[in-house]
Every structure is written in structure tokens, then in C-alpha cells.
Amino acid sequence: DRSIKIAPSILSADFADFGREIQAIEAQGADWVHVDVMDGHFVPNLTFGPPAVKAFRPHVKTFMDVHLMIAPVDPYIEAYAEAGADMIVAHFEAGPHPHRTLQAIRATGKKAGISLNPGTPASAVEYLLDLCDMVLVMSVNPGFGGQKFIPSSVDKVRQVREMIGDREIHIQVDGGVDPNTVGPLVAAGADCFVAGSAVFKGGSVENPAPYGENIRAI
Ligand code: DX5
Ligand code: ZN
């Protein structure tokens, strides 16, 4: 299914009100809910452990993709699966054995994704694709919302789409996605877009209509 999906990142939500924020973005048309997990080691920021993800779960009616920006990642896969992730995405750069990591994610019964930092070439995923439901092309250096889109990501998306061929694998782009950057990414073959600041700007749980306008604008 190559229809376009918008996955708002709750990194840009009100941290005191995640349940209602998730309900609001879904009511406003979000296709997926994107959860950014950071460990203060692989990336210079800290966010959500498995208990937080477990608390989000009952509020998510759509599909929760959990983006693990943590290293090592293998020891935590089971815990994030049990917390209720629908898809678990690990970074190629998180350790020497991304192939084993994808096998471990698949073993939990969850969908599996591999993420590439901006400095990692598209070819990194070549021998991993048969274990992937999604490739995440990072279009900023992971760690923070609100950063500037890195234009070379478009070419990387094109190369990954070519490698995927006729396999059923999503390409997600994460970082600096907004109405100005999304067009060339769609043309290059991406079908799933994470957006934090571009979705949450101007809205709130009390005034959620801007979330919907922002989602439709992307
Ligand atoms: C970056 C995260 C992103 C981020 C996107 O480390 O993986 O999901 O929150 O935020 P924006 O859309 O504001 O760049
Ligand atoms: Zn993310």
C-alpha cells in the first residue's frame, strides 16, 4: 500500500498531556503515531522508556511506530514490543549487527524497520531489505525536533526505492518534513512522513483544528 501516510511525532506534543494529544491528532487525520525513543547516548536527548510507551498504547487506535534512537538496541526490543509498539524501528548505526536486530524484532511478531542517519549511504540497507517492513531515511541528525531538512535525503530515498523494487516495503522520512519539502520526497518514492513541528504548530488539545489543517497541508 503506497498511499501517503502522515505520522505525527509526539515529541512535539504537550508532554503533560500525551493521552489527549494522541486522541486529538488521530481525530484530526493522523494515519500513524510516531514515538521517538532517545537514550542520551546514541543521540544527545532523552525521552521515553517502555512504561511511557505502554501508557500511550490505549490511546492509539491507528498504528504506533516506535523509532528507537538507542544503542545498544537489542536488549530493549522485547520490552518495547510488550509495551505495545506495532512497528519497531532500529538504527543501522546502533551496533555491528543490524541484521540480527531485525531478526529479533521480527521474532516478537511486530513489524520491523531500519533507520539510516544522514551520513549513512543507501547501500547500507541492501542486505537487510528482506527483513524490513520499512526503511526510515533520516532527513536531520536525530535527537531534536524542529531542525532543518537535509536536501540530499531526496536522492537517498530514490536509491532506496530502486533497491526495494517490487517488495512491499515502506519508505519513511523523518526530520524537517513540511509542505515545502514533501513534494520531491513523494516523487522519489517515499510514502510515509513523520512530522513534529509542522503538525503541532498553532494547535493544542483545546484547539486541535490546526493539527488537521497542518496534516492536510503536508
Ligand atoms: C528527530 C526525530 C523526529 C523529530 C521530527 O530526532 O526522530 O521524529 O521529532 O521533528 P520535526 O518534524 O520537527 O523535524
Ligand atoms: Zn523519529
From TrEMBL:
Cofactor: how and how many bound: Binds 1 divalent metal cation per subunit.
Residue sites binding a divalent metal cation per the record: H34, D36, H67, D174
Residues noted as binding substrate in the record, renumbered to the chain: S9, H67, G143, F144, G145, G146, D174, G175, G176, G196, S197
Gene Ontology biological-process entries: pentose catabolic process; pentose-phosphate shunt
InterPro entries membership: Aldolase_TIM (IPR013785), Ribul_P_3_epim (IPR026019), Ribul_P_3_epim-like (IPR000056), RibuloseP-bd_barrel (IPR011060)
Pathway as given in its UniProt record: Carbohydrate degradation
Protein name: Ribulose-phosphate 3-epimerase
Source organism per UniProt: Marimonas arenosa
Recorded name of the encoding gene: rpe
